[in-house]
Write a structure and sequence with these properties.
The complex is a heterotrimer of chains A (297), B (280) and C (804). Chain A is mainly beta and 297 residues long. In chain A, 0% of the residues lie in helices and 53% in strands. Chain A has a single domain, classed as 6 Propeller (Neuraminidase), CATH 2.120.10.30. In chain B, a hairpin with a 5-residue loop joins strand 19 and strand 20. With 280 residues, chain B is mainly beta. Chain C contains nine helices and 52 strands. The chains are: A mainly beta (297), B mainly beta (280), C mainly beta (804). Chains in contact: A-C, B-C. At the A-C interface, strand 12, strand 15 and strand 22 of A face strand 47 of C.
Chain lengths: 297, 280, 804
């Protein structure tokens, strides 16, 4: 476990403000007039399918771009919070919540898109961490117990202020940033060589598979990979009570370049991206979805 | 716990024997059916097999490929045996009374399907070999010795000096020799009365006679938790020469043999039959 | 043969009839895991003083076997029949897994236990039991095996002599735990058809636990807990006596070792301690025992009748301590104690700081003096014995159980001075022994003992434009901004606090040329009011070097904007009129001239100029107007210029041209922030000539802060005969709405939580509402509206424009 003590001061990004990293080719509203309350979008890796849910994460809906059809995957509470596609885009993992004896019990479920069948893939627990889908299965923790069905796959997750990287079934924990209130939003780059996570109070951190910091691209929320060298994230400000601005930004993973894709007053948030399809989908604060096609320069 | 006498014997026998027999594998095929812990009938025509948890017992007829379900209760697949005439199968089951284990023995007639209770459920262990006929051998936990019966005439023998626990004893097809394991000393062959004990191999499990001159067994290595390496071996009892019949690329966890075949099962439940040839 | 069988059967039937659940019916098979000290499948953890491979060191096979023996003895004492897979530890004892399972069956066992201890296989260090049964976590192959495994886990967790990193139950199916092995599972659990468990009792790669596993008493504790698990499993009564066990640590000396230590494992163990058990009154000694030599401090009294006792513990180097202990039947009473080391040597200073020698740079002028002692000290005697010359006031504090003394000066040291701190030999440790010799340390201080202010807005007596005001202070080093809001206070003339918007503070980051912070006010100021700002002398740089004195600033709020529609020369609405003129400029790296619609004073926009020079002096920048401005200026008149300053102190001029003459009119130095109105009489123009505005020039003032800046210009007006402008009036508001005009969203922000916003048409009807602070206007017709913002029980109205 390596520790690098980085104070906020050391986070210096030499950013070429608004240097053009990519051209915005088009921006189109999605499902306008067809669906409402569309929040928390998640794209499949090939960009052909999209998940979204209500503002409070209730329910999970699936949109197929090719068929132009919306299917209800679940109507349960919390289904939209930790939903993700399997890498081949054939299954969806999500976590539901029910109140039993006055306690919230959660469970991981898997939805097969072709057959539209849902099965339970974990027992119920009080605390379930975000399921990480890998090529042949998934990993999660249920009340602290690790549940892995594809142990050889490299995967990354966070727990408190630990970044946990598993290779060949062996988990190692790292704390690359000290004095953070917690780590969230972890993911592997598409080529599986880099790890990205967000350290609260600090910002985005990129490390190698051994927890060594490669770069710190900036203090932007909800980052997702766009290919292996770029990141799409959300830049929001607030007045302590309400959002003041929120925009979608495109960053180079090495932290040297920054481009605002939408304006601060556009109140756009929670981006999701498919590098293969050259598209980004994001939501507005009042539940509309937009698709933006970009082309890297 | 190790007796030193047999080391010298083994050394002597290597020097002495010149006319060794020869064993070779003619062919290997995979059986269509999945199973574990195979047991060949003495005439080599049938194979008993069970699940990885020893639940249930089936018999496969090697020529007709017909499968007979003998019993499907838990524990019935542990240590079954064929009667000497090959017509019935003797097997054991487990039942729990007041939290304590009881074991019984039944026989199953392969032709008629009739089941006979040979021993009521009782405490302590019982070896199915006692019921196969007039000639048999087994390692007894009670006497901490080997019980041998030759045509009804019984003996309790202790072939290894300071031998502690014996398992897997069996009489050779010609009724002249005994093969057995002493758990701390290894695999041995001896006269039926226990004399002239000769060391064959260490860490060898499931020993069985392939004809009168070879013993086939399973050699394993483990890390204290799981088996990490397993090979089927054949040992020439005269020369002591060890031939490896499998290459260790898959983990074998059960083997059985007769003079012209060896059947083994891997950890995944795949069963293979090897046709072997022994030349004098 | 038949006779024998009948006899056997009758005996069996007889035992069925007599079936009572007591110990003598049970047959239990114990398999102490591994065997033979073979590194391939045994586990050797190298701990001092045993070398790698030494069979007397920690080998899992040894440890498992000892536990097995103790358990066998305990069970046999109760009449249970016990069979063990091995009773020695040679390579012959390393039995095959199939063999072990068969032996267990052959023994006719009812229950199987494989004893192991665990290792993580990573650099992570934990300590807790995990018990395995065959099958999946929720689908045991033999349900009874899961019950048996749970009985074991629950009992092992009661061990109070160790440090568990988790006391959650950890009972796992081997197929779930090792999913990559499919349904192979652990070899020994496969053969059984009887309930079996594999116990990983604790982690032997957590080194303090490895040392504990060298203690026979400790292994006896695990065996006792296995025995209790058997009792629980079969609902058996247990034993009539109890036991006492525990761990002895030093009360404060840290344990030496290059391995992870958790909780009290960070304290030294007390080895070969003498532990005696006495009657309640402490007069009759009943039993005695020792903790062993192997760095674990573990002791046990293995058989004690229930009752109350006094237990006394002493070590070779520790004071005796005693405690009352109550013992109950069939339970171990755990008593862990911390002993105090006998202070039998004189106190010395073991380490100290600052460490300075001739040639080293000076230490910071606020460095504390820290002394670390080998014993806990008598604080009063140390404080009386401590002195520092030259004299400087300070405070002495203690840490680490009085092992560490810290002298913190309450004012900064003098610069470039040698200070000597001295502790004379009267200083004593808590046992009363004095130092053998006095102690002295010296250090030389750096040449800077205060932070200086190199730029400031507002300065005392300045005028501040009321709209969007901010304060900025610049320092010679990066300031520590974390406590800054407690170190600045601003009050108006009635003494009421004026708030700063901490969330919008900007400040210098690592690598900046100078230190600064800039904080805007939360609300606009009231024009005409005077204010007082106090910067505390606790404001300090990142090393803690503070300002020498506090700073008091009085300033007045003004409106720098006035409307003079008839006399505007240049309204600065069109930024494209101005461009860099390289002929009239010297050494300009970059300049960017843009329209700024947000921060303007008049009209819809002003002109924003962002620039960068290569060095801290010598540059000049001329921004030429593409055409001359219409107004004609003479030397009787004055010009009024509205400038938004950037604190660089660079100078701004207007360039005016007449036939055959060019003049530069000085407007002012940008040593302020925010808008300021300058009125400049044009007396330097030549008489009888008429000049027209042709450009704006900036001349750099040599300074650390003048290299980069950003200033704005709005209306330049022409005052006939030099009239002076009038101050305007504005209302104060804390609610803001942007963007205005808006096409997609109107976003309202305020000091409090906005509950709701309403869009009201010019005819008074409510056109749209939204919960929260964001209103979607993408489908609203263009036009002028009012937006009503509901905050904390009140509401406020603002005029907005929707334009798509």
């Amino acid at each position: 476990m390596k520790k690098l003590l980085l104070s906020v001061m050391a986070f210096v990004g030499v950013v070429s403000m608004n240097a053009q990293i990519a051209d915005v080719e088009s921006v189109t509203p999605l499902l306008k007039g067809v669906e409402s309350e569309m929040h928390n979008p998640v794209l499949s890796a090939d960009g052909s399918q999209l998940l979204f849910s209500e503002c409070d994460y209730t329910g999970l809906r699936l949109y197929d771009f090719n068929d132009n059809v919306v299917v209800k995957v679940s109507t349960e509470a919390r289904a939209g919070l930790d939903a993700s596609f399997s890498p081949d885009g054939k299954e969806i993992y999500f976590v539901t919540q029910t109140l039993q004896n006055n306690r919230n019990m959660r469970q991981v479920k898997k939805y097969d898109i072709a057959s539209r069948q849902t099965i339970e893939v974990s027992k119920q627990g009080r605390v379930i961490s975000r399921p990480v889908a890998t090529t042949k299965g998934f990993a999660t923790t249920v009340d602290g117990d690790l549940l892995v069905t594809d142990n050889k796959a490299t995967r990354v997750r966070t727990e408190g202020t630990s970044l946990i990287i598993a290779k060949n079934g062996v988990e190692k924990a790292y704390t690359p940033v000290a004095n953070s209130a917690g780590y969230i939003w972890s993911s592997l780059s598409p080529d599986g060589n880099k790890v990205m996570f967000f350290a609260a109070g600090f910002g985005i951190v990129i490390t190698d598979l051994n927890g060594n910091i490669l770069s710190t691209p900036g203090n932007f929320e909800a980052p997702v990979w766009y290919g292996n060298d770029h990141i799409v994230a959300m830049n929001a400000t607030n007045d302590g009570h309400n959002y003041r601005s929120s925009q979608i930004v495109l960053l180079s993973a090495d932290g040297t370049q920054f481009q605002a894709l939408t304006k601060p007053e556009s109140m756009t948030m929670n981006p999701t991206a498919s590098f293969d399809a050259g598209k980004i989908v994001y939501a507005t604060i009042d539940g509309r979805l937009y698709q933006m096609n970009i082309k890297l320069k | 716990m190790k007796a030193k006498s047999w080391i010298l014997m083994a050394a002597l026998s290597v020097c002495a024997s010149m006319s060794a027999a020869d064993l070779s594998v003619v062919s290997t095929e995979k059986l269509d059916v999945k199973g574990y812990y195979p047991v060949l009938s003495p005439d080599g025509s049938k194979v008993l097999f069970t699940t990885s948890d020893h639940d249930g017992l089936k018999s496969l007829d090697l020529s007709s490929s017909e499968i007979t379900l003998i019993d499907n209760a838990p524990g019935t697949g542990f240590d079954p045996a064929f009667s000497a005439d090959g017509k019935s199968v003797i097997y054991r089951s487990i039942v729990k009374v007041d939290g304590l284990i009881r074991r019984d023995v039944k026989s199953y007639d392969l032709a008629t399907g009739e089941k006979v209770q040979l021993l009521e459920p009782s405490r302590g262990n019982v070896d199915t070999r006692q019921f196969v006929g007039k000639t048999f051998a087994y390692g007894s936990a009670r006497t901490q010795a080997i019980e041998v019966s030759l045509d009804g005439k019984k003996q309790t023998i202790n072939p290894i000096e300071s031998g502690y626990r014996y398992l897997w004893a069996s009489v050779s097809p010609s009724n002249s020799k005994l093969v057995f394991t002493e758990v701390y000393s290894g695999l041995f062959v001896s006269e039926l009365d226990g004399t002239k004990a000769k060391f064959l191999a260490s860490r060898a499990e499931f020993p069985c006679w392939a004809g009168d001159n070879y013993v086939v067994a399973l050699y394993t290595e483990d890390d204290g938790y799981v088996v990490t390496k397993a090979k089927v071996i054949a040992v020439d009892i005269e020369s002591g020469k060890v031939i490896e019949l499998t290459d260790g690329s898959s983990i074998v966890n059960g083997v059985t043999a007769t003079k012209d075949k060896v059947v083994y099962a891997t950890e995944d439940g795949e069963m293979f039959i090897m046709n072997i040839k022994i030349t004098e | 043969m038949k006779k024998k069988f009948i006899a056997f059967t009758i005996a069996a039937l007889a035992s069925i009839a007599a079936m009572a659940k007591d110990y003598s019916d049970l047959i239990i098979y114990i398999n102490p895991g591994h065997g033979g000290h073979d590194a391939a499948n045994d586990r050797n953890v190298v701990i001092y003083p045993y070398a790698e491979g030494d069979t007397s060191g920690f080998w899992e096979s040894n440890s498992n076997m000892h536990k097995g023996f103790f358990l066998r003895d305990m069970l046999q004492d109760l009449g249970v029949k016990v069979v063990m897979s091995r009773v020695t530890n040679t390579s012959a004892d390393d039995l095959g897994l199939e063999t072990i399972g068969r032996l267990a069956n052959a023994a006719g066992s009812d229950l199987f236990l494989s004893i192991h201890s665990n290792a993580t296989g990573t650099s992570n260090r934990v300590n807790f039991p995990i018990i395995f049964f065959r099958g999946y976590d929720n689908e045991p192959v033999y349900p009874d095996a899961k019950v048996w495994a749970t009985d074991i886990d629950v009992n092992l967790l009661t061990n109070g002599a160790t440090i568990w990193t988790s006391t959650n139950t950890n009972v796992r199916g081997d197929w779930s735990f090792q999913p990559t092995w499919g349904t192979q599972g652990y070899g020994v659990l496969r053969k059984l058809t009887i309930p079996g468990a594999l116990s990983e009792g604790s982690f032997h790669d957590y080194i303090p636990e490895t040392y504990r596993l060298m203690s026979l008493d400790y292994k006896w504790i695990e065996a006792w807990n296995f025995r209790k698990a058997v009792d629980d499993h079969y609902s058996l009564p247990g034993v009539s006596y109890g036991a006492i066990a525990g761990r002895l640590n030093d009360s404060r000396f840290p344990r030496v070792g290059d391995f992870k230590m958790i909780g009290d494992d960070q304290l030294e163990t007390v080895d070969t301690a003498y532990v005696s058990l006495w009657d309640e009154t402490g007069t009759t000694k009943l039993q005695e025992t020792y903790s062993d030599m192997i760095l674990n401090g573990i002791y046990a009294f293995r058989k004690v009748e229930p009752g109350k006792y006094m237990m006394k513990v002493s070590g070779n180097r520790h004071y005796e301590t005693s405690t009352m202990v109550e013992v109950t039947a069939d339970e171990i009473t755990y008593v862990n104690l911390k002993l105090n080391k006998i202070r039998n040597t004189a106190p010395v200073v073991e380490t100290y700081s600052p460490v300075w020698k001739e040639g080293d740079p000076g230490v910071l002028c606020n460095t504390p003096v820290v002394l670390d002692f080998n014993w806990d000290m008598d604080t009063a005697s140390v404080e009386a014995a401590f002195s520092i010359t030259p004299e400087i006031p300070g405070e002495i504090t203690w840490e680490n159980n009085n092992l560490r003394m810290i002298f913190t000066p309450t004012q900064t040291y003098q610069t470039s001075t040698v200070y000597t701190a001295r502790l004379d030999a009267s200083a004593k440790h808590a046992g009363g022994m004095a130092m053998e010799a006095p102690f002295e340390l010296s250090f030389f201080t750096a040449d800077r003992n205060y932070m200086s202010i190199i730029g400031q807005f507002p300065k005392d007596g300045e005028k501040v434009h009321f709209d969007n005001p901010a304060i900025e202070v610049r320092f010679d080093k990066l300031p520590n901004v974390t406590p800054i809001l407690k170190q600045i206070s601003i009050v108006d003339s009635t003494g009421t606090k004026v708030a700063l918007n901490n969330r919008k503070m900007t400040y210098s980051k690592l690598g900046a040329e100078y230190g600064f912070f800039r904080i805007p006010f939360t609300k606009d100021l009231t024009v005409g009011n005077t204010y007082k700002m106090t910067l505390s002398n606790e404001i300090a740089d990142k090393d803690g070097i503070p300002l020498q004195d506090s700073v008091v600033v009085h300033f007045t709020a003004v409106d720098a904007g006035t409307e003079k529609p008839d006399s505007i020369i240049e309204d600065m609405e069109d930024a494209t009129l101005y461009a860099l003129n390289s002929q009239g400029s010297v050494d300009v790296d970059t300049v960017s001239i843009k329209k700024d619609a947000t921060n303007k004073l008049f009209g819809t926009s002003c002109v924003n100029v962002m620039y960068e020079f290569p060095a801290t002096e010598g540059s000049e920048m001329l921004l030429s107007r593409s055409a001359l401005a219409d107004a004609k200026l003479t030397n009787n008149d004055a010009v009024g210029v509205h400038v938004y300053g950037d604190l660089t102190a660079n100078e701004v001029y207007l360039e005016v041209i007449a036939p055959e003459d060019v003049k530069y009119i000085p407007v002012g130095k940008l040593d302020f922030l925010g808008w300021r109105y300058f009125e400049v009489p044009l007396t330097m123009l030549e008489g009888e000539k008429e000049y027209q505005l042709s450009g704006v020039k900036m001349v750099q003032t040599p300074s650390l802060m003048s290299r980069k800046g950003e200033f704005k210009l709005d209306n330049i007006s022409y005052i006939k005969d030099g009239a002076v402008g009038v101050e305007g009036i504005e209302t104060m508001t804390s609610v803001t709405v942007y963007p205005n005009p808006a096409s997609e969203y109107l976003i309202a922000n305020a000091d409090g939580l906005i509950d709701k916003v309403e869009l009201i048409g010019m005819n008074g009807t409510v056109t749209a509402t939204a919960d929260g602070n964001v209103l979607n206007v993408s489908e609203i017709a263009d036009g002028i509206y009012f937006i009503r913002i509901f905050v904390g029980g009140t509401s406020e109205l603002k005029k907005v424009v929707v334009k798509h």
